[in-house]
Amino acid sequence: MWASAHTGEKTRNVIAHWRQAFAVLGIPSAVKTNNGPAYASQKVRQFLQLWGVSHKFGIPHIPTGQAIVESAHGTLKQVLQKQKREMQGETPHNQLAEALYANNHLTVPQNSNNPVILNHHLLLQASDKMHQPGAKVRVQNLVTKQGEGPYDLIASGCGYACVSTDTGVHWVPAKCARPDLRPQRKNLANRQAGARDQMKVIKWMNHRVMTQMEMM
User: What InterPro entries does UniProt report for this protein, alphabetically (predicted)?
Assistant: First the structure.
């Protein structure tokens, strides 16, 4: 979940919220809103076109599309209410940040025995055989200081990385995971060797042509 605190609901507030959301969640392929004046303005249309985001409007009086938003609003309000006493005197931005952190990283659904982080990375909830392999990375062993891998990178974020190894899923500091560049270097070496062989053939053919011309 992501939310931001603003003093109004005008076009500039909508754009400011989306800028922050893009920075945290990434750029979406599309966003869906109601057709209120702030969302239907020309500035919003230009902003989304600049970012390459498709804009879809919900159908009025049909609450299905709005249900997810209202549910998120209700959850966030509950968290804010629970921490109201301990956050008294804090700015609205600080209160919201605390609530988002609690909801995103400290909340465990009922009847769930998974670590908190698994509940917020859906890809990790699948078995090792079911996950979709991502980029290949090499991981530095903190004990031996030796590089291991390559392993499939499943998820990464600020300061952490999750990789799939032969013994299961492992979480490591981000500084210990580096892209596996060996295939690229091997391909480059092969291309360079192929280019050298091609140059040798060209030189040999040129030499042969010159020899024949001298004999004539």
Answer: Integrase_C_dom_sf_retrovir (IPR036862), Integrase_cat-core (IPR001584), RNaseH-like_sf (IPR012337), RNaseH_sf (IPR036397)
